[in-house]
Design brief:
The protein has nine helices and 42 strands. It is α/β, with parallel strands linked by helices and 730 residues long. The strands form five sheets. The protein has a 22-stranded mixed sheet, with no helix packed on it. A ten-stranded parallel sheet has the order 22-24-26-28-30-32-36-38-40-42, with no helix packed on it. A four-stranded mixed sheet has the order 1-4-6-8. The chain starts with a helix and ends with a helix.
Length: 730
């Protein structure tokens, strides 16, 4: 009897060991299924270009047998079946073949943001376990005449076909109707055909619907509102279509909406009061880019959850600041620019700013003075340009991320203490300052260079600043646009400008002015209202401004020579030093600025010859050296004649070049010219083409190299455009 407890202990231990062994076997990774592995390899064969080499891990090598370890592939740990294929944003070029239909257990397929072309294989409808399908932003994909294959995906919850050509899918509503589990549907910019909408219902579970950019008209309203009666939409995006007329009151029945975007249409009339009085759960409302008129309705005050409101680019008439704004405690983004507001900025305006990340009240008739802000969001951006604001600029406002107070009547000095810090004590993170076209005076503040070291854009043009350019400005290592033009600045141009790293470091990355504020939900643009001055005219840069690195010191009282260090700013695209009192020669090595597109040194006192190196700037499209005392410019159409154009008496003679000797010399030159052309053709053409014709291996290698270069350029351009489109959509 005494040995029985021992036997029981041994038996229990053996049982525990067996259970542990079974658990390890069950938890061990199982290799992928051979049939699915072959299907993936067939898919790879359809990819003709792999920019990042992500498919290099896919193959038949001994170390590549297990497809579950391939990049972008994920398998079920217990069955070995492929359940996830995610190759999004990998710069792949090719076609999507039907072999993917062999992945019968696939749950998530994401091939978005690539360059897949051709017709989508309807065999994808055989993936009956698929829960999410994202083929968006492949600008080259198209479908056959219908989308009936979608009916084979009963478990699909998320579908994104944005930018896929659906122009022939005339029965797309009927196809979507059969997807009873669908929650998210994104069909933006798919060229949906103009059809007669019927009372077809979508999935009752549909929560997000994006039909933006399809040219849809108001005839879709009955279908849309019938859809809403059977579902609980939270997100609805109908932006960039052809909706016209007034905003229907039926939108007020969509009480579950949290996101509504009707921007960039042709909507007219007033913003309906009753409609938005009922949608109290709205978080984001975008109505910009329409033809709406009237005042901003008080009914919006009932949206206590509102975080983003954009009513800009309409014909709203104000005239008063919406008083209900100060009750919106959740508001983070507000754009009521060009809304006809014409009153003094109210005191309460500054009390709701602490919650905001973005405030745009530009292009109104707002007057009054700016006030100190005691608390604010760490990523605050403010655009109050083109108003009638007066007085000085409070010190606290320089703790924002983006400041545009241009085209107002602000005055006084901004020479504040260099001890400016934000609340966290980490120093300022201000990226953009535009105070141009005001009445600011005094010397340029030296603290800008030390305290605002993250500045990318500094525009102080058309003010009344005086004194010299402070050396501390050379500490702006990230600056891409520096404009001090049209002031009363004197002294010399600092030699330390070569320390402006973003302009001096070759190949430095370009931070677009409309992209650097990554903390905002939407991109902020500085493109629309920025001008570059040349010859007294303001030339507007729109599409290309985001790539410009420029310096403009024009229309001041600068003296001395152009420092040689300027030629170290090899990334400069625009340089304007005109209308000053600069003297001395043009730097002989100015040709090092090979990216220059715009160079204006006119109306100075420059002397000497014109550097030959200017001819090395192939991109130079605007060059003005007029009204200086430079030598080397002569001949028509200028009044000054070159020495060889004068006869023995010293008078100008245009017939002296028609002599007999010159005619003989010209004939001889012609013979040599045409002879060299023939000789160059023989050597150049047959030296290259003949060699390629006779050597097959060289010929193959050469054309393979050309194809590779072509594919790389095509992929880079296409994917960049698709990225930009997706960022605009988000």
């Amino acid at each position: 009897m005494s040995g029985r407890p021992f036997q029981n202990l041994v038996a229990f231990s053996l049982l525990l060991i067996c259970f542990k062994a079974w658990w390890r076997v069950g938890d061990a990774e199982i290799g992928c299924i051979e049939r699915e592995r072959e299907a993936l390899l067939h898919f790879k064969q359809g990819v003709v270009y792999d920019y990042y080499g992500v498919l290099s891990s896919w193959g038949n090598g001994e170390d590549k047998k297990d497809c579950c370890r391939w990049t972008g592939v994920e398998c079920d740990n217990h069955t070995g079946h492929v359940i996830i294929l995610d190759l999004s944003e990998q710069f792949l070029i090719g076609k999507i073949g039907p072999s993917l239909a062999e992945l019968q257990h696939l749950k998530h397929l994401n091939l978005s943001l690539n360059v897949f072309k051709g017709i989508l294989p309807p065999q994808l409808g055989n993936l009956s376990n698929l829960q999410s399908l994202d083929l968006g932003y492949n600008d080259g994909l198209t479908t056959c005449d219908n989308l009936d294959w979608l009916s084979g995906l009963p478990l699909l919850r998320q579908l994104d076909l944005s930018w896929v050509n659906l122009s022939t899918a005339i029965h797309w509503p009927q196809a979507i109707k059969k997807m009873t589990s669908l929650i998210e549907l994104h069909l933006s910019y798919t060229q949906l055909p103009i059809i007669s909408f019927s009372q077809n219902n979508f999935s009752k579970s549909l929560v997000m619907l994006d039909l933006s950019g399809n040219g849809l008209t108001s005839s879709m309203y009955p279908w849309l509102f019938n859809l809403f009666r059977t579902s609980n939409l939270v997100l609805l995006d109908l932006s960039s279509n052809d909706l016209n007329g007034s905003i229907p009151d039926a939108f007020g029945n969509m009480t579950t909406l949290a996101y509504l975007d009707l921007s960039s249409n042709q909507l007219q009339g007033e913003i309906p009061k009753v409609t938005f009085n009922n949608i109290s759960c709205l978080v984001d409302l975008y109505l910009f880019g329409n033809q709406l008129h009237g005042s901003i309705p008080v009914a919006l005050a009932n949206m206590f959850s509102l975080e983003s409101l954009d009513l800009s680019r309409n014909q709203l008439e104000g005239p008063r600041f919406p008083h209900w704004l100060h009750t919106q405690k959740s508001l983070m983004e507000l754009d009521i620019s060009a809304s006809g507001i014409s009153e003094v900025i109210p005191t309460w305006h500054w009390t709701f700013i602490p919650n905001l990340m973005w405030l745009n009240v530009s292009n109104n008739h707002i007057s009054g003075t700016l006030r100190n802000i005691t608390s604010y969001h760490p990523y605050l951006g403010m655009d109050m340009s083109s108003n009638f604001l007066e007085g000085s600029i409070p010190q606290s406002l320089f703790n924002a991320l983006w400041l545009d107070f241009s085209n107002n009547m602000l005055s006084g000095s901004i020479s504040l203490s260099c001890k400016i810090t934000n609340q966290s004590g980490l120093g300022l993170d201000l990226h953009l300052v535009d105070l141009g076209k005001n009445r600011l005076s005094g010397s340029l503040p030296s603290w800008i260079g030390g305290s605002l070291s993250n500045l990318i854009v500094l525009n102080l043009r058309s003010n009344e600043f005086n004194g010299s350019i402070p050396l501390n400005l050379c500490q702006l290592r990230k600056i891409q646009m520096l404009d001090l033009s049209s002031n009363n600045i004197s002294g010399t141009i600092p030699k330390c400008l070569k320390n402006l790293t973003a302009m001096a470091q070759k190949g430095s990355s370009v931070i677009a002015y409309d992209e650097f504020v990554s903390n905002f939900d939407r991109q902020l643009s500085y493109v629309d209202n920025t001008l570059v001055q040349w010859k007294g005219k303001e030339l507007e840069y729109t599409k290309t401004l985001r790539l410009i690195k420029s310096i403009d010191f024009s229309s001041n009282k600068l003296i001395g020579e152009i420092p040689m260090e300027v030629v170290d700013l090899v990334e400069l695209v625009s340089l304007n030093l005109s209308r000053n009192n600069l003297s001395g020669p043009i730097p002989t090595t100015i040709g090092q600025l090979k990216l220059l597109d715009f160079l204006d040194l006119s109306q100075n006192q420059l002397q000497g010859g014109i550097p030959d190196s200017l001819s090395q700037i192939a991109r130079l499209s605007v060059l003005d050296l007029s009204n200086n005392t430079l030598s080397g410019l002569c001949g028509p159409p200028l009044l000054k004649r070159c020495p060889e154009d004068r006869d023995e008496s010293g008078e100008v003679s245009f017939t002296s070049l028609n002599g007999k000797k010159d005619g003989i010399r010209d004939d001889a030159n012609d013979i040599w010219f045409y002879g060299n052309i023939v000789l160059g053709f023989i050597i150049g053409f047959w030296g290259v083409c003949g060699t390629l014709l006779l050597h097959r291996s060289w010929r193959y290698a050469y054309f393979k190299f050309l194809n590779k270069i072509k594919d790389r350029l095509y992929v880079t351009t296409t994917i960049s455009m698709n990225r930009l489109r997706r960022s605009f959509q988000s």
